[in-house]
Design a protein that fits this description.
It is an enzyme of class 3 (hydrolase). It comes from Vasconcelosia minhoensis LEGE 07310. The chain has 197 residues and is mainly beta. The protein is built from two helices and eight strands. The protein has a single domain, classed as Roll (3-methyladenine DNA Glycosylase, Chain A). A hairpin with a 3-residue loop joins β3 and β4. The termini are far apart. The structure holds a DNA duplex (12 and 12 nucleotides).
Length: 197
DNA sequence: CTGAGGATCCTG
DNA sequence: AGGATCCTCAGC
């Protein structure tokens, strides 16, 4: 069984954590006890001073977790429909996090919406789809990433994977910053194998 | 209290 | 290309 990722490992700049998280495992234990694992294949970094970062205009109720200690979840609600999962990074007071955009699940999670049955590899291909598949909502905002909360991370084993670094997706500001990483050749990346928008 | 916008996703 | 859908925050 792989080693669990600790808070101090996340206590670095988001741009350092984001590529290191590729190939690591996101683990979700549902209330029923069922455990689903997924290999993280796509991440984005959001930094202090970054206009696209939710923390850019200071702390609010919504983004409070980003200013807290590293190794905690930040889950937000977007477009009236989707939730997105982040790992909070860096020191207390630094509003920064890594968005988990896609994971390749090792098993089919329970209670999937009927529509999502098609491609197993793509069940969590995209930040909104990932949270829907793993049943994560704002109740999971601000929780330490550890087994007791039903959501945690495990280190990868073996050699570092081959990464592609490119620009982030879906932004109206700071679109030029190359702070998105994905696993080279992965078919579980959001929007197929696209690079940017 | 009001309104504008958003780190998405699916359909046509 | 456009629509669904609603929370959040800034502004009045």
């Amino acid at each position: 069984m792989a080693a669990i990722i600790t808070a101090d490992w996340c206590d670095r700049a988001a741009t350092a954590v984001a590529p290191d998280l590729i190939g690591c495992t996101l683990v979700r234990q549902f209330a029923s006890g069922i455990i689903v694992r997924g290999q993280i294949v796509e991440t984005e970094a959001y930094m202090p001073g970054d206009p696209a970062c939710h923390a850019y205009r200071g702390q609010t109720r919504r983004n409070a977790a980003m200013f807290g200690p590293a190794g905690v979840s930040y889950v937000y609600f977007i477009y009236g429909m989707y939730h997105c999962l982040n790992v909070v990074t860096d020191a207390v007071g630094q509003g920064s996090a890594v968005l988990i955009r896609s994971a390749q699940l090792e098993s089919i999670p329970p209670d999937l919406p009927p529509k999502q049955a098609s491609q197993p590899k793509r069940i969590a291909a995209g930040p909104g789809k990932l949270c829907r598949a793993l049943q994560l909502d704002r109740a999971y905002d601000g929780l330490p990433l550890e087994p007791a909360t039903g959501l945690w991370l495990e280190h990868r084993r073996g050699d570092p994977p081959e990464l592609v670094q490119t620009t982030r997706i879906g932004l109206s500001q700071a679109q030029e910053l190359p702070w998105r990483w994905f696993l080279k050749g992965s078919r579980a990346v959001s929007r197929g194998i696209q690079s940017s928008r």
